[in-house]
Amino acid sequence: VDMSMLVAWSLIGAKLNVGAGNDPSAIAATLLAADAWLQGVGFASGIKAGHPSYAAGKGYYEALTAWNSGR
User: Fold this and answer.
1) How far apart are CA 71 and CA 69, in angstroms?
2) Cα–Cα dist 71/51, whole Å
3) H helix or E strand, kind and range, residue 17
4) d(CA 57, CA 63)
5) What is the pTM of this model?
6) Which of 14, 21, 41, 42 has a Cα at 20 to 30 A from 49?
C-alpha cells in the first residue's frame, strides 16, 4: 500500500472534520506536519515499507486515523 495515499485520505478526512466544526487543537501539529510531509513526497508517490519516508508517513496516518475515529 502506498503510504502517501493513506496519509492523503486521512488528511482529507481530518480537514473535513475540522471544517464540520470539530476542535483541531489535539491534532493541529500533526495536520501541519502531515500536510508538509505529503507536499514533500507527493501524492501517489509509491511510499512503501522500506522507503525512508514510510515510518513518518505511517505515524501521521495512524494519528490522523485515530483522531478521525474519535480515539
Assistant:
1) 6
2) 28
3) helix 3-19
4) 10
5) 0.93
6) 14
